[in-house]
């Protein structure tokens, strides 16, 4: 069980970031995986769909896996993110976003000529390379973005001249591709961005201690 939770959290941190302010809306993504042989046994635990909801100053990301549901709520103004998880009867809100110094992160964006259509929108390819001073290895994200939609839904993409509708992340033997399938621009219910009263709020260190028991 602990190994499944650890894998579950890897996917959280591949995607975790505060979502920058943008127009209200909803984007549905399909998720596809390429896994090394050692991880194939865990494929059935992985989510194949992600939904992002956005209102000014807040966002919500939803995924469902075999071991439980995953919801990430981002409060932009207060620079806070909470992961909502329900494992068996436990309902937890784990604070996973900590303030970071933007000067510690360097990035390079390379825009390419390759094009494709995604969810009815014309997109162009780009590559984002980021390097954190505290880490030895760089991160590379390949993505297709559109200029037909305004707004940024993830701080990883805040400096990109468009909205990514497909992106690929590689980490720890996994290649994960997120592709938008349905896009709607509409005001979202404020309740989506609140922590339910029946959830227990934990720090990440408290959650790790809980899982080790």
Proportion of helical residues: 10-25%
Query: Which shape, going by the Cα principal axes?
Result: globular
Radius of gyration: 17 Å
State the domain count.
1
Q: Distance between termini?
A: 11 Å
Kindly state the mean pLDDT as a whole number? 80
Strand segment tally:
12
Structural class: mainly beta
CATH class category: Mainly Beta
Report on the biggest sheet.
12 strands, mixed
Per DSSP, the total helix count is 2
Numbering strands along the chain, what is their spatial order in the largest sheet?
7-8-9-10-11-1-2-3-4-5-6-12
- The name of the CATH architecture is Clam
In terms of DSSP E residues, the strand content is over 45%
- Within CATH, the superfamily carries the name Lipoprotein localisation LolA/LolB/LppX
Order of helices and strands: HEEEEEEEEEEEEH
Given as residue ranges, the uncertain stretches (5+ residues, pLDDT < 50) are 1-8, 10-22
Task: Please describe the structure with a list of short key phrases separated by commas or semicolons.
12-stranded mixed β-sheet, disordered N terminus
């Amino acid at each position: 069980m602990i190994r499944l939770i650890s894998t579950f959290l890897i996917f959280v941190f591949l995607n975790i970031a505060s979502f920058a302010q943008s127009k209200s809306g909803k984007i549905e993504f399909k998720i596809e995986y390429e896994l090394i042989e050692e991880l194939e046994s865990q494929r059935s635990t992985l989510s194949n769909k992600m939904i992002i909801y956005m209102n000014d100053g807040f966002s919500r990301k939803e995924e469902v896996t075999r071991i439980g549901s995953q919801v990430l709520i981002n409060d932009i103004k207060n620079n806070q993110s909470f992961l909502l998880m329900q494992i068996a009867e436990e309902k937890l809100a784990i604070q996973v976003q900590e303030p970071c110094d933007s000067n510690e992160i360097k990035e390079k964006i390379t825009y390419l000529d390759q094009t494709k259509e995604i969810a009815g929108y014309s997109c162009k390819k780009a590559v984002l390379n980021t390097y954190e001073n505290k880490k030895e290895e760089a991160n590379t994200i390949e993505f297709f973005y559109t200029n037909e939609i305004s707004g940024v839904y993830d701080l990883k993409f805040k400096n990109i001249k468009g909205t990514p509708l497909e992106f690929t992340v590689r980490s720890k033997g996994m290649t994960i591709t997120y592709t938008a399938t349905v896009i709607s621009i509409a005001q979202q219910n404020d309740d989506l961005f609140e922590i339910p009263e029946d959830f227990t709020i934990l720090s990440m260190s408290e959650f790790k201690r809980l899982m080790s028991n």
